[in-house]
């Protein structure tokens, strides 16, 4: 299915398939599986072996990397993460993403803009994807704490990595990977200067975390607090659209 064109007029075929396991997670799964088999087959310690075998399955599930059908629309800003929209708030963007960083490339503008925060539990897919197509202009890693990623101050105090992507027409989107209570490693797949497609994989965060997306001025989110979103598929905003959208939990 990878690379196949599908549309809303019936073109294309779809079917369920086992998701791939990202290479970053295979080594952890193999190590846990080997330990489980050692306890079960060599030491005959089932009280440890069976829980370790269940943990092995959980590790492989955590690092699953399913294919996604990415909307091809120049107005669309795509969700970079699977998870739940936990915050929509007006904030000043991180200073690491604002203005010229010395490379001659402008970042985000000063002034309050809309931040959409997406919380990823340990049950969500943790592969992160680019919200737009363009060039990676900045990738800034900042060490920090490991507080609950659902807290507002996690944006300023937790371990995090800022990514800035600029389109060919000059539109810039900034987003931040934030480690959480259990997460202990942010793994980038891209570097400054790389060209990325909308929905392309750009990194992952191990074991529970959050993504903050900074929308351009004049753009309001199309998602609601509490809504589940899918990386690479859910359109979280359309450039220039500011319509109020309300939802009902039921």
Automatic annotation (TrEMBL):
Its cellular-component GO annotations read: plasma membrane
Which residue windows are transmembrane per the record?
28-45
Annotated Gene Ontology MF terms? phosphatidylserine decarboxylase activity
Q: Give the EC number(s) under which this enzyme is classified.
A: 4.1.1.65
Q: Does the keyword Zinc-finger apply?
A: no
Q: InterPro entries from the xrefs? A: PS_Dcarbxylase, PSD-A
Q: What post-translational changes are documented for it?
A: Is synthesized initially as an inactive proenzyme. Formation of the active enzyme involves a self-maturation process in which the active site pyruvoyl group is generated from an internal serine residue via an autocatalytic post-translational modification. Two non-identical subunits are generated from the proenzyme in this reaction, and the pyruvate is formed at the N-terminus of the alpha chain, which is derived from the carboxyl end of the proenzyme.
Q: Where does the record place the modification Pyruvic acid (Ser)?
A: 209
Cofactor(s) listed: pyruvate
Q: Name one GO biological process term.
A: phosphatidylethanolamine biosynthetic process
**Annotated protein name in UniProt:** Phosphatidylserine decarboxylase proenzyme
């Amino acid at each position: 299915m990878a690379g196949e064109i599908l549309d809303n007029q019936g073109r294309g075929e779809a079917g369920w398939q086992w998701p791939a396991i990202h290479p970053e997670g295979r080594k952890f799964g193999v190590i846990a599986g080997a330990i489980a088999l050692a306890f079960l087959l060599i030491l005959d310690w089932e009280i440890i072996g069976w829980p370790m075998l269940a943990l092995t399955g959980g590790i492989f599930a955590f690092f699953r990397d399913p294919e996604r059908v990415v909307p091809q629309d120049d107005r669309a800003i795509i969700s970079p993460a699977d998870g739940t929209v936990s915050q929509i708030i007006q904030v000043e963007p991180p200073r690491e993403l604002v203005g010229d960083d010395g490379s001659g490339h402008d970042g985000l503008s000063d002034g309050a803009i809309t931040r959409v925060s997406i919380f990823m539990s340990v049950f969500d897919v943790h592969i992160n994807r680019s919200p737009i197509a363009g060039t990676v202009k900045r990738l800034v890693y900042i060490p920090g704490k490991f507080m609950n990623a659902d807290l507002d101050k996690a944006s300023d105090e937790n371990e995090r990595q800022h990514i800035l992507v600029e389109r060919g027409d000059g539109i810039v989107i900034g987003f931040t990977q934030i480690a959480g209570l259990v997460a202990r490693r942010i793994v980038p797949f891209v570097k400054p200067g790389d060209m990325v497609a909308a929905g392309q994989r750009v990194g992952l965060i191990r074991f529970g975390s959050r993504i903050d997306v900074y929308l351009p001025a004049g753009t309001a989110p199309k998602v609601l607090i509490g809504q589940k979103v899918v990386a690479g598929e859910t359109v979280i905003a359309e450039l220039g659209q500011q319509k109020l959208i309300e939802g009902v939990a039921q």
